[in-house]
Amino acid sequence: MAGARRLARLRPAPLTSARRTPALPVLGPGARYRRPVTERPRPQTDVDRIAEAHLDALVRLSPIEATTLGVSGHDEELDDLSPAGLAALSGLRRSTLAELAAATCADDVDRVTVAAMRERLGIAEEVYAAGLDAMSLNVLASPLQAVRDVFDLMPQDTPEQWRTVATRLTRVPEALAGYHTSLLAARDAGQVSPRRQVLACIAQSRELVAPDGYFATLLAGAQVDHQPLEGSERTRLAAAVEGAAAAYDDLATFLERELLPSAPAADACGRERYVLQSRQFLGAAIDLEETYAWGLEELARIRASMQQVAQEVRPGATVKEAVAVLDADPGYQLHGTDALRDWMQERADAVVRELADVHFDIPGPVRRIECRIAPTQTGGIYYTGPSEDFTRPGRMWWSVPRGNTEFRTWSELTTVYHEGVPGHHLQIAQTAYRAGLLNRWRRLAAWTSGHGEGWALYAERLMAELGYLDDPGNRMGWLGGQSLRAARVVLDIGIHCDLPAPAEVGGGRWTYDKAWQYLTTYGFMDDKVLRFELDRYLGWPGQAPSYKIGERLWLALRDEVKQREGDAFDLKTFHRRALDVGGVGLDTLRSAVLGEL
């Protein structure tokens, strides 16, 4: 699960059709992809060897990262989350940076690798030195969630696979004990997450161990060939589940007793830390005041567009009234999570068929995406990439809040494009496929939020440009998503950097109540989801704006290439060239695409 800059009102350049290329076969479930012999690999260079060695060492130190990246061999292990474990990761980064400083680049691919690794590893070292790794605790992306989430990516179909799950579960107590140590060290250094985050994480931990929580559900649902897991394997799993659940119960108690009394009431992280974390998520430095002003302007423009679409839904309607009309329309309704999953899959598969070889090169194994309902109930929607050999496909996950059984396609179609094709799935899986061009670090581990989330928003806009969101309801859904992402820019920068709140919420300094008023005005989602959204912004500074800011740079880059190439500009070629760079920081992306490294 880490943007950019440019002028405010960017108009996309005209799009062109692209040359068609022969289609590659679509793989069936469980098939193993073998790269065609006609794909000529680029010879490995010294820089590639440094990058590959770094990745090999990284996945040894972080088995969670290994599973996330689809690298096998570490599936029974968990990370050392103690200060010693964090120091070991820092040591790896520093040694790799030293090797890169002495390396000689053989070609342009090497130059991009060196630039990308220096930027990514360098900012990670700044974050570590600032103590932010040790204090990491928030509602969405901290070790608390990472340890639990990794089990979603593990196969759970055979007795052997359940044995691996059980073994990893037995490591949960040790991993969380190390996490306790890091949080205590950070606390003693005066660094504790805000009280709101600590309270929410206590609640999350207790939800996981509830009678109907994750751990109980995992054991109750353990099956092999659609039959309950039985015998010694079930006994082993039950003991492992009990130990892991006890460790999360202990974590809740630890947070309540040891961290909560020291947690600051203020949500804002302050400008100094914000600048650092913004660079971490964007791979670029931005002018915060200019970006804040742009966010306000962009939000006003989106709101005006929504009002225009509201007239198409029902003449004379306000946006709120149009939303009510769309919600009541049976044509946009889905009943139950099975229907939601099936609809997601149908739309994702259809877009792959329709965009392949026209606007994108989509290799055979990338044409398979799997849509699932997540085992958690936080309300998030996310994507996980394929394994290295594509035996585990890229997956789109929908974490449905407890009790939600009714869904509206008008507001969710744009999300399918964001998480699937041409969004995260095409971006991440296509990059993972390019073994003949990119080393494994570039393919698997160069993820930058501003690049990734910016691309996914660019993908949504592209689908609107291509006519996939012409239906007034679906277009309102896209604009509603854009409204939320622009509001994030305003809220995140405004709160954490203490910029003046807009007059519509009373001006002056931002408060939680002002932020809630603003978010409910511009975020068209269920209140429970919006509460989680706001807590996320407050606890994970700099990440939420990377979506909209990243889209801003992707559009700017497309316009710049279009201006340089004129009539020779080809959309499919631009997409292929840009995606083949990998998920690097946004400054590195621009320099690589424009040939300026």
Distance between the termini: 27 Å
Shape: globular
Q: What does the radius of gyration come to? A: 23 Å
Strand order of the largest sheet: 4-6-5
The amount of beta strand, in percent, is under 5%
Please count the helical segments: 24
What is the percent of helical residues? 55-70%
Q: How many distinct beta strands?
A: 7
Structural class by SSE content: mainly alpha
Low-confidence stretches: 1-38
What is the typical, i.e. mean, pLDDT? 91
* Main sheet summary: 3 strands, mixed
Write a concise synopsis of the structure shown.
The chain has helices at 46-61, 63-69, 83-102, 108-129, 143-149, 159-169, 172-188, 195-208, 214-220, 231-259, 271-282, 288-313, 319-328, 337-355, 409-419, 424-433, 440-445, 449-465, 472-497, 512-522, 527-539, 546-565, 571-579, 586-593, and strands at 223-224, 227-228, 333-335, 369-373, 381-384, 394-398, 406-408. The model is unreliable at 1-38 (pLDDT under 50).
Task: Explain what you see.
The structure is a single chain. The chain is mainly alpha-helical and 597 residues long. 58% of the residues lie in helices and 4% in strands. It contains 24 helices and 7 strands. The protein has helices at residues 46-61, 63-69, 83-102, 108-129, 143-149, 159-169, 172-188, 195-208, 214-220, 231-259, 271-282, 288-313, 319-328, 337-355, 409-419, 424-433, 440-445, 449-465, 472-497, 512-522, 527-539, 546-565, 571-579, 586-593, and strands at residues 223-224, 227-228, 333-335, 369-373, 381-384, 394-398, 406-408. Strands 4-6-5 form a 3-stranded mixed β-sheet. Strand 1 and strand 2 form a beta hairpin. Helix 3 (83-102) runs antiparallel to helix 4 and helix 12 (288-313) packs antiparallel against helix 19 (472-497). Residues 1-38 have low confidence and may be disordered.
